[in-house]
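Predict the 3D structure for this chain.
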Amino acid sequence: DADKELNGKQHYLSDFATFSPPCPPPHSEELPGFYYDSEKNRYFRLLPGHNNHNPLTKDSIEHKAMECKRLRLLEEEQKQYFSLQPPHPPTCFYRLVHELKVNCMQRRKIEIHSPDSSVAGTNNFKIIVADVACERIFTVNDVEHGGCKYGIINLSGLGKESLTVEMYDNLYFTNRKVNSVCWASLTHPDSHLCLMGIAETPGCASLLPASLFSSTNPGDRPGMLCSFKISTAWSCAWCLNPQADNCFSTGLTRRVLVTNVVTGHRQTFGTSSDVLAQQFATQTPVLYNGCRSGEIFSIDVRQRNRKGQSWKATRLFHGSAVTSIHLMEAEHYLMAADMAGKIKLWDLRTAKCVKQYKGHHNEYALLPLHVNEEEGLLIAVGQDCYTRIWSLQDARLLRTIPSPHPSSKDAIPSVVFSSRLGGSRGVPGLLMAVKQDLYHFSYN
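Done. Predicted structure below.
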């Protein structure tokens, strides 16, 4: 009888026909091939996703639901008022202050100026990375014809009253896709930039002077200190320890390459997996690596490369590809995120996970972590385009910030957080770059 009733209902349903049941069915009894719209109290037929003219595919329905959620959260944020009672009362006044500051951050759009009027606001931001003093941010922007455009934004104009920044770019470097970038301190703090990217075939590693973006005379432009062809590069890191001076590392497909940019000497360490994330310790010349296999291991770059895996020191394991690692200031703990959305804090002395930060969303993207120990905050942008902020101390999710733009694969925000955006006298807050726009969330 149930089969007859179902067949009878489907008989009267054309491609876009609807009918009204007396009440919404439980999820377990949904009709195969049909979608129930709770707002309209109707059933709609689902057609294959390759039918571009069909407005009712699974992907379009999921996208619509995500967009409704994003708009609802944006509206709630606009109505949010200062509250002295957080959802879960913290154990001390210090934590109370920080939680209130996080929840009261409001979004304001930043005006971007450039000496070249054709630069600002014409290309989508892909990556932003701040220097150590947070006086400048290096930007990687996608360009329409393929490749990337690089630029530097000066944050000195980011005052309390004015939200204006100056952007300088160099159109010479536009032919490569960039996977990873980090600031490098060679001649002085944050004097250069390490770029790891994909050209046609093979990839390319470059050390680029930051002064290239401030010179107005083309004849005064310094050249790249080093640039060489490599296999596909996934990550990079600069070493600040004097025992491995002037060295940077490149995470490649199944190997790690450590290069001294002054002498040209290179060390190669073979791995069993692609190296997607890297960071040097500062107290010792030790390099930490996160791999696609889920393994995290360290290398003491003072030792000569030996065959086999005996040169691996600390070894930790995630259940999925490790996309980002961050060594804490005391260098006893390491934060790591993976493609399953897991964020874990590891004790390097015991090789055990001591905390997990839940709520992050990732399935396949290389997404960075941002840790600010001074404020006790962990920040990560998920593949769903939501920016989440956790308390470092108790791993509690403090706030989820929806993107100002509709969620999509090419609109994942890139963020920077600092207590001093613009230098020692700068303003505290979160910078968010998404699409062609730059936003400031004031943290005070």
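Residues 4-29, 81-87 have pLDDT under 50 and may be disordered.
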